[in-house]
Amino acid sequence: MSWVVVWQSAVGVVMLVAGTGKVVAPGSLRPFLIALGLPAPAVRLVGYALPVVEIMCGGLLLAGVRPWPARGALILSVVFLGTLWVARRAGVSVGCRCFGALDSATLTPVALVRAAALVVLAGWLVAAQWTGAAELTPPPVLAGAAAAFVFLIGSALLGKVYEFESGRPEVTR
């Protein structure tokens, strides 16, 4: 299997989960955008459009479409990282809720690290597709870091799902 397929799948899953998380918890992104000082029309536009773009980008990546979804994922990832950096510098404490209800309500350094890792993954994918190197092999450290990143994101999200499900009231028949 090609490393490009691995990167494409990893970035696609992260994008798809992020977009779906926002759709499942509509409005979860709103407090963060308001804390950044965006005007109400921009908050509404981003709140509706961002999950759609993430889901489309993730779905197209998983479907194997090249090269535009990878480039879109890289652009989104850079914008996410820049926005989180600006938020931290401005003292915003409201979480980005990048994965909807599955994400923390408080802005932590983990969100910055996660966004930076996604920039690296998406950047590597774009570089591999651009050069046409179907078997562009990443440095072992990067491959290990990427695998750890995907594992940690997956386990954190599963933990949040469990936490969410355990807090739901029992349905009696």
Q: What are the main properties of this structure?
A:
globular, 6 helices, single chain, about 170 residues, mainly alpha
Produce a short descriptive summary:
With 173 residues, this protein is mostly helical. 72% of the residues lie in helices and 0% in strands.
Give a verbal description of the structure:
The protein is mostly helical and 173 residues long. The protein contains six helices and no strands. The chain has one domain. Helix 1 (3-24) packs antiparallel against helix 3, helix 3 (40-62) crosses helix 4 (68-89) and helix 4 runs antiparallel to helix 5 (109-131). It is globular.
List the helices and strands and how they pair.
Blueprint: H1 3-24, H2 30-35, H3 40-62, H4 68-89, H5 109-131, H6 140-167
Helix pairs in contact: 1-3, 1-5, 3-4, 4-5
Coarse morphology: globular
User: What is the averaged pLDDT score?
Assistant: 83
Distance, first to last CA: 49 Å
Instruction: Classify the secondary structure makeup into a structural class.
Output: mainly alpha
Q: What percentage of amino acids are in beta strands?
A: under 5%
Can you tell me the residue ranges where pLDDT is under 50 for at least 5 consecutive residues? none
Order of helices and strands: HHHHHH
**Number of domain modules:** 1
Assign a percent range to the helix content: over 70%
Largest sheet: none
What's the count of strands? 0
Summed up, the helix count is 6
How large, in whole angstroms, is the Cα Rg? 17 Å
